[in-house]
Amino acid sequence: MKKIKKIGILTSGGDSPGMNAAIRAVARTAIHQNLEVCGIYRGYQGLINGDFTSLHSRSVSNIIQRGGTILKSTRSTEFMSVEGRKKAYDNLMKNNINALVVIGGDGTFRGANIFRIEYDFPIIGLPGTIDNDLYGTDFTIGYDTAINTVVEAVDKIRDTADSHDRLFIIEVMGRDAGFIALRSGIATGAEKILVPESPTYINNLIRLLQHDWSKNKTSGIIIVAEGDDSGGAFEVARKINENFDFFDTRITILGHIQRGGSPTAMDRVLASILGYNTIIALLDGQHGVMAGQVNKEIIFTPFEKSIKHNRKMNLKLLEIARILAL
User: Fold this and answer.
1) What is the C-alpha separation between 217 and 226, in angstroms, rounded?
2) Does 267 participate in catalysis according to the annotation?
3) What angle do CA 318, 322, 323 make, to 5 degrees?
């Protein structure tokens, strides 16, 4: 492999809190190792358009506490084509960039894997996604912040639910994975948690609500992941109202509020540790892998495995949540 002298950094896909902390860690570690650093704006589309900027130590000052990404992000359909990737490669060569660090989720790593195979180009990924659905790390960058955002919102909604004897059905992000719904549901004492990993039986849900009503429980919280097979919060509410009219039902879609905000200490530390180890691994000859932390140890998982074997949910936690919500 050609000696690495200059690296590029990009963020791709949905933004997540802690991406800036990761950019900062990657850039400053690379500079410490006497590497040049190039920031690439707007992900893979920026590679194609040649939207590059030099990064120095001061370029990443005062960003560790900021949500979003200073390099901005977008999803590039052009990068999915052979022609688009050829433009990206030509721009990397033109700017003497020898390796890439990509920060994102499943789609980001799929693109990186195709590109590095086509051009034998060194790439390492950092898991930046609020969904926590990547194999090879206990937590992804942004997940902890997203959960805390949901918990704060649900705690406030709970006050209103109790005051007015209302049933709130709250939809959270998680099109393909229910990790946000599961952990925030446990943390807020939700009466029911609906996730894609477990089939939703509306009749069982109705029976649970009837049981709660018989025990003089006149308010409640149901957390629904957007990808749950029930069809989302509005469909759950419709089915409940058709079969159970005791509760005054309300719906809240938390939406993109979950992506924003200042990252938690946990996300800042995780991003910093993974960012540092990414550069060390690149210089050690590793590439085509995602950096992660499992049982407090840094590991590197091949892109093929991280994107094909999404992490499994511990469904026992759903049972624990059900018992604790009685």
Assistant:
1) 26
2) no
3) 120
Q: Which tokens belong to 41?
A: 């704006």
- In this prediction, residue 29 has a pLDDT band, given cuts at 50, 70 and 90, of very high
Q: Which tokens belong to 211?
A: 């049981």
Please spell the DSSP secondary structure of 195-229, one letter per residue: -TTS---HHHHHHHHHHHHHTT---EEEEEETT-T
Q: What are the structural domains, with CATH classification, of the chain?
A: 6-142+263-308 (3.40.50.450), 146-259 (3.40.50.460)
Q: Which residue has the tokens 């000696």?
A: 3
For residues 257-276, one letter each, b for 16 or more C-beta atoms within 10 angstroms of the residue's C-beta and e for the rest, the string is: ebbebebbebbbebbbbbbb
Catalytic residue among 15, 106, 131, 144: 131
pLDDT tens digits along 58-92? 999 999 999 999 999 988 999 999 999 999 999 99
Phi, psi (5° rounding) for residue 251?
Answer: -120, 135
| 37 vs 211, higher pLDDT | 37
Integer Cα distance of 306 and 109 in angstroms: 8
Listed in sequence order, the residues at least 6 apart from 120 whose beta carbon sits closer than 8 Å to its beta carbon are none
Percent of the chain, pLDDT > 70? 96
Give me Rg for the CA atoms of the chain. Answer: 22
State residue 200's pLDDT score. Answer: 73
Structure-token pair, residue 300? 């590197």
HSE, side-chain direction, 13 A CA sphere, residue 259:
14
The DSSP letter of residue 128 is B
Strand partners, 124: 101, 289
8 A C-beta contact, residue 78 and residue 45? yes
What does the pLDDT read at residue 1?
60
- Kindly indicate the confidence band of residue 123, based on its pLDDT and cuts at 50, 70 and 90: very high
